[in-house]
Design a protein that fits this description.
- It contains ten helices and ten strands.
- It has 280 residues and is an alpha+beta fold.
- It has a single domain, classed as Gcn5-related N-acetyltransferase (GNAT) (Aminopeptidase), CATH 3.40.630.30.
- The strands form two sheets. Strands 1, 2, 3, 4, 7, 8, 9 and 10 form an eight-stranded mixed sheet that branches. It has a two-stranded antiparallel sheet with strand order 5-6.
């Protein structure tokens, strides 16, 4: 259920989501170049899915000890059968850099993991999954970033921060953000407008700074750290994104989705949104 979001201690919190709208940063980095270094795709074949499960095992089972090791070296659960799996791959090496999944209810209308883990703890009853048509809800989970694309913190309590960059790898810090944007684009294309996540409140606040606005809908629980349930309307994300991240979402959507699927995403975005990227 959990996303890969270990505790983010200050001041490292601010390094996770860079503010590139400042004059200095804008001249150093252009997010439109991100897609030159990383390719967004959906895992369709058994081999592609196994690559995703193998990365999840390295992160969740071997590095963070959030899940028990599997003899197969593949981290899987029952929800993978009703999930879409997306990833970012490093262009020059072909190595998978990060992954995220969307658990949906189209074939299996049973409860999402978040409904089971937070039962009796929801504080916004009008925004829980049961309030929406099951075919339009999903849960974003199992976000993981490969070790070589992360920087190890000296603070052992923090374990790893996802996607921090170095001077020679300026786009590594955007991998986790890119995975969230991929997930949002896939939600819109599939009609899973009402998204749910279980993340640390500190991470929710960080993502809100770039325009990915989560609404907390329940109490935080101790689940590999303090995590709380959040709701997100995928149709509102694009309108709220900072301009640089809109461009990033555009670039990743071009890689991830067919032209017809991109058209479907454009139609789902709120009418008041700036659609310059979608019509380019």
């Amino acid at each position: 259920m959990t996303l890969f979001n270990p505790t983010l201690p200050t001041p490292e919190q601010n390094a996770f989501v860079p503010t590139i709208s400042s004059p200095k940063s804008a001249t150093e980095l252009n997010l439109s170049d991100f897609s030159t270094f990383f390719q967004a795709s959906q895992a369709i074949s058994p081999n592609e899915k196994n690559n995703v499960f193998r990365l999840r095992h390295k992160v969740y089972c071997e590095e963070l000890n959030f899940e028990p090791p599997r003899p197969s070296g593949l981290e899987q659960d029952d929800d993978d059968q009703r999930a879409l799996h997306c990833s970012l791959t490093e262009a020059h090496s072909g190595e998978i850099a990060g992954t995220v999944r969307l658990i949906h209810c189209q074939q299996e209308p049973g409860p999402l993991p978040i409904e089971k883990y937070y039962a009796g703890r929801f504080t916004a009853p009008h925004l829980i999954p049961q309030c929406f048509p099951r075919e339009h809800v999903c849960e974003i989970s199992r976000l993981a970033v490969a070790a070589k694309f992360r920087r190890r913190l000296k603070d052992a309590a923090a374990k790893d921060l996802p996607a921090l960059s170095t001077a020679n790898q300026p786009f590594h810090r955007y991998i986790a953000i890119g995975l969230y944007l991929i997930a949002t684009a896939m939600c819109l294309e599939k009609g899973y407008f009402h998204g749910f996540v279980s993340i640390e409140p500190s991470l929710a606040r960080i993502l809100q700074r770039i325009g990915i606005s989560f609404t907390q809908i329940g109490e935080a629980i101790d689940f590999n750290g303090k995590r709380a349930p959040y709701y997100l309307d995928g149709r509102e994300v694009f309108a709220n994104l900072q301009p640089e991240y809109r461009q990033l979402m555009h670039s990743l959507s071009q890689q991830l989705l067919s032209k017809s699927a991109q058209h479907s995403v454009r139609q789902q975005i709120n009418p008041g949104s700036d659609l310059h990227w979608a019509t380019a």
